[in-house]
Every structure is written in C-alpha cells, then in structure tokens.
Amino acid sequence: MRWESLSDEHCSLARTLAVIGDRWTLLILRDAFLRVRRFEDFENSLGIARRVLSERLALLVEHGILSKVPYQERPTRYEYRLTDKGLDLYPALISLVHWGDKHYATKDGPPVLHRHLKCGHDFRSVLTCSQCAKPVHAREVAARASIPASRSRSRRAAASPG
Amino acid sequence: MRWESLSDEHCSLARTLAVIGDRWTLLILRDAFLRVRRFEDFENSLGIARRVLSERLALLVEHGILSKVPYQERPTRYEYRLTDKGLDLYPALISLVHWGDKHYATKDGPPVLHRHLKCGHDFRSVLTCSQCAKPVHAREVAARASIPASRSRSRRAAASPG
DNA sequence: CTTATAAGTCTTGAAAAGGAACTGAGTCAA
DNA sequence: TTGACTCAGTTCCTTTTCAAGACTTATAAG
User: Fold this and answer.
1) CATH architecture for the domain at A1-88
2) Contact A128 B124 (CB under 8 A)
3) Whole-angstrom Cα distance, residue B51 to residue B161?
4) Residue A158, pLDDT above cutoff 50
5) What is the model's pTM?
6) Counting Cβ atoms within 10 Å, is residue A114 exposed (0-12), middle (13-18) or buried (19+)?
7) Of A97, A139, A99, the residue nearest A114 (C-alpha)
C-alpha cells in the first residue's frame, strides 16, 4: 500500500498518521509546543534537512495544524504557530513523552518535567474516560465499528477490544 | 541528523519516536490492540510490504513492546502479543485516534466507537493530571529541564511551556 | 508427488531523506 | 554602491528506505 492512500482509509488512526505519522512531524510539533516558531529555529533545534523541514511545515499548514503568521515586513517573514487543531494534539504528544520517560528513563529521571499550572505540581498524564472520569486502561476498552461506518467498508472494523 | 541517532537524544519524545515513530509502527500496534497477532493477519489488515512488516515486528520485539509466543509446533510458529510496555502505549494511541475522529470526522461520525467497560459508555479520551486529577490543556503546562538533565546537555531543555 | 499454509527472505525499481550549495528580498555599515 | 549578513526557503546529487512481488523453508494433507 502506498502511504498517500492511507488518508482514504476508514480508520481514524490511519488518517491521522497520514498527516503526522512520518519520522519528523511529531518532533516539529514538540518544538512548536515549546514555542519554537521560526524556520531556522526548527532547523537548529532538530538538525533536520531544510528541504524536509520546508515540506513538513507546508503540509502542517495545509492541514491547519500550524498557521503561518507574518512577524516582520521588508522582507515579509512568517512564523509557524499551532492552531487549535494543533493544540489538540497535546494529549497524544505528552502521552508519548511520558511513555518514553517511563520506559527509557535514565538514573537521572526524566529529562523534562511538566508542571500543571492549575495545581502547581509536576505531573504524569493519565488517560481518563469522558463519561465516568475514571482512569482508562487498554484492557478495559471494547472497540466496535459504528453502524454507518460498518455499512461502508473495512474488514477490521468488526474487531474486538483494544 | 540521521534517524538512528535520535535514540541518543536527550528528549523522551525523540527516544520514543526512534522506536515507534516510523510510518507503519503505530498502525501495527493498533492492530495488535485489536487482537491481531499473526504475520499474515498483520499483512492482510495493513497491506504492508512483508519485508517492512518483518523488520518492524523484529524491532518491536527487540524493544520489548511485542513478545513472540509460539502458538504451534511442527513447524513452530509464533504470534506477536503486546507486552505491558506495549500496553502502556494505549493512551498515546487512543489520543491519536480521537484526534482523528474530531478533526477528520465524516457525516457518519467516527468509524470506530470505544466503550469503557467499567462504566459501560462510549467515551472520548481525556488527558488528566496525575496530581490533581483535573483535565490538562496544552497551555496550562510548563515544561522545564530537570536539574540533572540540564547538567548534561540539550539546547532546548531550557525552553518554556508546552 | 503435488498442493497448501505460515512466516519469512531476496531482488529490483521508485520514492523519500540527507547534505551542501545556491537564491532572493531586504538590512546595515563603510 | 559595494560587500557582508540574515532568514527562509529551493535545487541538486547521493544515500537510504520502501513497495511489490518472486522465492524459500518447514510441515501437513490429499
């Protein structure tokens, strides 16, 4: 299967990964969350090839995850800022970071600490249920195809828990 | 920067993406969460090239995210099952799925519904704080380098909120 | 013997990434 | 008014990875 055709897939994860699932995009977004905004700053921070960076930023803008905002005139130059859609990726991103903290920690502990400004404490992310507000674990979830979805397609839509 | 050198990076996200950050791995893991376990089933479900699938499964086993369990003798054949470390990726995965549901939804609604077995309701994932149990939003978090970490390296470690 | 099954490995051509040099619009300083 | 500098890319060439399908190995069944 060619990668582009992923965006035609029924599965939300496939469609999501068609946009942000390549090797660099999530690292670019991490920097964006850390308030990196300019081309050269992304380049210096990541060590990414300029051609690839340029292409990824354009894709993220095209998908409305970043927006290009002028920060000076003569010559007009733009910086890249997270949109609301981009900010919505935060739970996924921080979950990946905390997974790395947990499973690849060194003796020094996690390299970056995250403080929840509302309560003032360093925290780990906890996945909870929008309905009962309790923590959710992988084996307590049953996935099933929604009815209109199952009418149209997908062989794995009928699969069971996750 | 070469991709392999990512695993030497200080940042947990970089180290995480060095393992699961390629185009296919998260889709393989999604299938694993949906109880796909065998080589041919992954191949049929994903349409992935066999060489790439073989390589990715081996990498996931090497990193302890999947384990290879024999399911028959003569000839001995193995299936791939999520380890506890693999199961820990569920929050990141479901967050990505729900992001896709929200931002690429069709008129039919999300293609797959997730039911929280403990409360019996279809749910969305909510990121909460391990300390105060309240929902966390991107702009309410301040990231900072931990002290031992900042002694060793990283120019972005000093960066601000996320 | 022939076919079938499962889980790979090998080969080949195409696509993407890495890396360095180049471009363009404009500033500043001499 | 020339020359150096800045930022944000673009171009070009090489290296790496990927897609697709044929081939391999171990075994059972007919």
Assistant:
1) Orthogonal Bundle (1.10)
2) no
3) 41
4) no
5) 0.90
6) buried
7) A97
> Residue A35: which region, alpha, beta or left (left: phi > 0; alpha: psi -120 to 50)?
left
Condensed to tens digits (0 to 9), the pLDDT of residues A105-130 reads 888 889 999 999 999 999 999 999 99
Chain B residues near residue A1 by CB distance under 8 angstroms? 46-48
Query: What's the CATH number for B1-86?
Result: 1.10.10.10
Closest partner CB to B119 (pick from A47, A117, A132): A132
**How far is A161 from B51, CA to CA, in rounded Å?**
28
Task: With beta carbons less than 8 A apart as the criterion, state whether B134 and A119 touch.
Answer: yes
Q: For strand D, is any atom closer than 7 Å to the CB of A78? A: yes
Structure tokens at A146: 């929604």
At residue A140, φ and ψ (nearest 5 deg) are: -105, 15
Kindly state the tokens that stand for B114. 């997730």
β partners of residue B141: A116
Joined together, the tokens standing for residue A32 give: 């964006």
